[in-house]
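Much of what follows relies on a compact textual record of a protein's fold. Here is one such record, which you should read through line by line:
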Amino acid sequence: MGTRIIKYLIDSVLGVIYSSNDNCLICSNYCSEEDLICNNCIKKIEFYNDCFKIIREGIELECYSAAYYKGTVMELIRRLKYKSDFNCGEVLSQMLFKLLNIKKLDYDIITFVPASRKTLKIRGFNQSEFLAKSIGYLLEKPVLNLLKKIRETKDQIGLNAEGRWENLSSCFQVVNKKVLYNKKILLIDDVITTGATAFYCSRELLKHEALKVTILTVSKSRL
């Protein structure tokens, strides 16, 4: 999985240099050589680029999202996750990169929300890991695998807000404890809805003496 992502990052750089495809990834209309999606599709993105907080169990977490989960952004994420369209992933990574530059977030290590073995077997990769490694590549920052998902969960679709929290409780575990002490962690995911996934991942990192966890996602849902 890691080799596949690294290969794509290299291919992406070469693709930018030698690209001759002027069609938008979403609508197939013309767009400039420097862009992967056209201005019309960009205009349909409802950008957020701001901070909100998750407060639970005495823990307060800062969260940042680039846009709302709808329209163009929803389509880009779906194509990345279910069709392994890494060009769409490149667009999403650029959105995160711009948000990081706007907010000047302070962190030592980048990590990502882990996928279950079942999901990895079906998709062949973890989209959150892809986004994290893309950001790490652009910023020349370390990206470490700090978490694993230790049990399968129900699909979050169809569950109410509290059901989503119960579904994800105690399903994440830290795998690289030694590096966490007194470190500020940037946790990356594609979508945040209730915040349950991000919260339980962050709680585990903080339990093992991470100094702070900041959550960064491409998009946020409106429940």
